[in-house]
Amino acid sequence: MYSSGFILIDKPKGMSSAACVNILRSKAGRKTKVGHAGTLDVPACGLLVLLLGKMTRSSPYVMNLPKTYVTTIKLGEQTDTDDSTGQVQRKSEWRHIKEEDIDLALVSFLGHRHQVPPKVSAISVNGRRAYEMARNDESPELPERVVFVQSIKRTSPISEEGKFTLDLECSKGTYVRGLARDLGIKLGCYAHVDFLQRTKIGPFELKDAIPMDCLYEMSEEEVLSKVCSPYELLKAFCTCEANEGEEEILAKGQSLSDVPRIKEWGTIEPSKAFAVKGKDLISFCDIKWHDSGCIIKPVTNIFL
User: What pTM was estimated for this model as a whole?
Assistant: First the structure.
């Protein structure tokens, strides 16, 4: 049983990520600090990584992990939210679109690209949330952001209703709703997200998550027994194992001139998140390479 660590949660449609955090906090005890490592929109469902205790400090690093989704796209309609919960604003003909047209268009979404977030989003514009401005019939100008799509593939035929399913893996900050909108434009019609489920975050999978209805029934002791070890989180990152002397140096906030022994290679490049495991310490570090090796500097030390 761990007082600090993480839990994988299967969030249902219609519930906010913040509500999931509050429920877990009430179950784990009000004195237990709980935080999320990347939210899901209320209409979406699937995997949430919730952090407990001292491991809440690792949230920025977990957020950087790649995400995998299953989504159903609806052709022929534009909504004000870019998903099925919004009001339909425009309609267009879509029956001329063939499955090979979709497959060809999807190729252009691979790699780095600029994306404008949906107007109904949590993006801050001059200190105000974009969704608050949208509710007041304002039209915020949202700046483009660079996102990265590792893979994207159609996994179903187009249905009679103009729907088809995609599997995709993408970076932090990628809006699948924005992708659906832009795909429709690429195809010459409107489109929005009809269904969205997150199935994976880094190496962590939805099949290992606890459904919220099961969490409701658990006692505090049962919930805490489901908390995964802080060190289990490190399999997501390029992780080195420090000896006692190296751990002491990092604990003091000092740099190491050589990388200790590699323990895990992770699912994210070391330049984005590099971790060092000690007996009583997890240190997230910056790594800088030079001709004779590298220097790692601790940025976030978590003492366990």
Answer: 0.92
